């Protein structure tokens, strides 16, 4: 991007969603459910609980001062870590691990 384009992007300012019940939620500790992952966290959000949608579930996020300036979606991961299957038994390297099901007769 050129210098002029970067200046225009900075002039636009942060993206945030107007939450009408923000003050009420801060006072009564009621969580705010949102799908606005791209919303920038403002200083007025500190102390408020959000439930941010990750595409499948709402993930609870408590806003602390260190989060100001970041996006809500940064604290609601959308992917799970992959889990590898258990390794086969090392005592008998020629045998396969028992899977519990088979097509053969017993």
> What characterizes the major β-sheet?
3 strands, mixed
Helical region count? 2
The radius of gyration computed from the alpha-carbon positions, rounded to a whole number of angstroms, is 24 Å
Shape: elongated
Report the order of strands and helices. HHEEE
How are the strands ordered across the major sheet?
1-2-3
Protein name: Ribosomal protein S19/S15
GO biological process, one term: ribosomal small subunit assembly
Region (Disordered): 72-106
Organism: Exidia glandulosa HHB12029
List the helices and strands and how they pair.
Layout: H1 3-12, H2 22-28, E1 32-34, E2 49-53, E3 58-62
Parallel strand pairs: 1-2
Antiparallel strand pairs: 2-3
Defining traits:
single chain, 106 residues, alpha+beta, 30s Ribosomal Protein S19, Chain A, 3 strands, 16% helix
What does this 3D model show about the protein?
The chain is α+β, with helices and mostly antiparallel strands and 106 residues long. It has helices at 3-12, 22-28, and strands at 32-34, 49-53, 58-62. A three-stranded mixed β-sheet has the order 1-2-3. A hairpin with a 4-residue loop joins strand 2 (49-53) and strand 3. The radius of gyration is 24 Å and the shape is elongated. The termini are far apart. The model has no long low-confidence stretch (mean pLDDT 82). Residues 72-106 are annotated as: Disordered. GO terms for molecular function: RNA binding; structural constituent of ribosome.
């Amino acid at each position: 991007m050129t210098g002029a384009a970067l200046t225009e992007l900075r002039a636009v300012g942060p993206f945030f969603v107007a939450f009408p019940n923000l003050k009420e939620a801060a006072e009564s500790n009621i969580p705010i459910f949102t799908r606005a992952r791209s919303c920038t966290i403002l200083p007025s959000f500190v102390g408020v609980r959000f439930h941010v949608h990750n595409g499948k579930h709402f993930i609870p996020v408590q806003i602390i001062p260190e989060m100001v300036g970041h996006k809500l979606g940064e604290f609601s991961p959308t992917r799970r870590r992959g889990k590898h299957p258990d390794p086969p038994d090392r005592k008998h390297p020629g045998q396969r691990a028992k899977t519990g099901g088979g097509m053969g007769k017993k």
